[in-house]
Amino acid sequence: MAAAQGQRSDGAGEMESSEGKVADSAPLPFRAAVDALRGARLRPEIEIDPTRPPQRLAPHAYALEAAVVEGEEDLADGRLVLLHDPAGHDAWQGTFRLVTLVRAELEPEMAADPLLPEVCWSWLTGALHARGLSAGEASGTVTRAGSHYFGGLSERPPASQIEIRASWTPREGSGGVPDTGAHLAAWCDLLCQVAGLPPAGPGDGSVVSLPQRRGPLSP
Known about the structure:
Number of strands: 6
Oligomer: single chain
Shape: elongated
Structural class: alpha+beta
Strand content: 25-35%
Largest sheet: 6 strands, antiparallel
Helix content: 10-25%
């Protein structure tokens, strides 16, 4: 599948934000991997911004949050975290790790599908494979939840949500740097699929400048 083109993942004003900065003392492979994330060209439906990364999972971390937006509605959102340990990590079988959270509201008929968790996991692995990417030591969970409203909220219809949490080790290329830009694009493909958007066609190449996310994702 051809790489989808759209807005750049750095977002407006990222270099001036505390979340978007990477210390000059950070290892060169990590800085190169972050640069690849910032330079990725994404579908125009994606709004994306840097966010504060977790502090205790690895010596070096960089995080992005994104949403699939149609009009004023967020159809799906998520967070992607790049971790780097120059000494390597036994569980990762490498020096880099990608960690993700993706979530979306579901149509009732989709929420009732008993195969939904397996299908959602196949969307993740399929998005990576479609771009020729490997996902070493992949693991994760797919959680389906339903909400029913009572009292002052009783007029709201029941709602269902899906949440995908996953992590994988990207294959390291030249200089020990993985193709993080391609992994980000694949992750955005997953976001769009969960949101119910059709696959990007070869004509989806317009570059747009989208507004900042309206608020941070909850932990």
